[in-house]
Amino acid sequence: MITLNKETIAIKREQDVVFFRNRVNEYAEKIKMGLLNKTKLLTAASELVRNMLIYAKEGKVICEIVTISALQTGIRLTFIDNGPGIADIDKAMTDGYTTGKSLGLGLPGAKRLVNIFDVKTVKGKGTTISITKWKNG
Amino acid sequence: MDKIPILKMGDYLLVTIQVDLYDRLALNLESDLVNMINKHSSKGVLIDISAVNIVDSFMGRILGNIAQMSKILDAHTVVVGMQPAVAITLIELGLPLSGVHTALNVEKGMALLQEKLLLDSTVIADDTDDNT
Q: Going from the N-terminus, what domains does chain B have, and what CATH number goes with each?
């Protein structure tokens, strides 16, 4: 996978979420991603950035335009935090499971909305979640 | 502090969400709406989300909460104008928004509210008939 364009956005407070969503929206428009895929990507991003703010208080997101061939372009978002990590990743990926007060749809829902979903978490050290959404697909 | 305006129109409250929602804004809307229902004894709430590009699990939960809270306060809630892409995304996310009444546009939403109000009043009228 080749990265064409890269930017890091710091997430420290709730208002940063609006700015972050707008940036992702601009990236999606830049590669002419369709409305449905764009909505799915933005919704998944919104879920993950909220998790970051709730559980790790702050973090950063790397936005990239990636390509694997002339035909397949997409956006990769990598959410990095130094929070408490996820204790039981299998449980966390189950619908309806939450350690907070939410509906427990964030992680499994976000996974369903994107093409590639990758979690790395170390308890006490932090969590890195990477999602990729292709322009077509 | 940003605020989403709530308009009173007779027995109804109208909310048009025209800005990008973040969590605090949505929570404020929830409490403002419940207070307004109480203050004006409103019978219906119409929420227009046609300008909303994304509804995630938090926003979906707020919409569900508003519907349930207003139900307890004897008011109906109708969410109107959801974009098709938002509807598809909500279902894939796993949030069917059960318990929330929806309509395609403001006009149909208003008609639905009026219908519900009419139904309520006929049920009450039937009850009084039985008592006499």
A: 6-131 (3.30.750.24)
CB-based contact, B27 to chain A, within 8 Å: no
Residues in A closer than 8 angstroms to B55, CB to CB, are 43
Q: Which two tokens stand for residue A22?
A: 């707008």
CATH, residue A83: 3.30.565.10
Question: Does this complex have an ipTM over 0.90?
Answer: no
> What confidence tens digit (pLDDT) does each residue in A61-105 have?
999 999 998 889 999 999 999 999 988 888 889 888 888 777 888
Nearest-CB residue to B56 (from A14, A36, A46)? A46
SS3 B3: coil
Query: Domain range for residue A50?
Result: 2-134
The answer to whether residues B54 and B92 touch, using CB atoms and an 8 Å cutoff, is no
| pLDDT tier for residue A137 given thresholds of 50, 70 and 90 | confident
Instruction: Report CA-CA distances (Å) from A6 to A24, A33, A38, A66, A130.
Output: 11, 17, 18, 9, 14
Domains identified in chain A, total number: 1
Cα within 13 Å of Cα(A53), Cβ side: 19
Q: Which residue has the tokens 């598809």?
A: B88
pLDDT digits (tens, 9 = 90+) for A16-72: 998 999 999 999 999 999 999 999 999 999 999 999 998 999 999 999 999 998 889
Q: Which residue of A has its CA nearest to B93?
A: A109
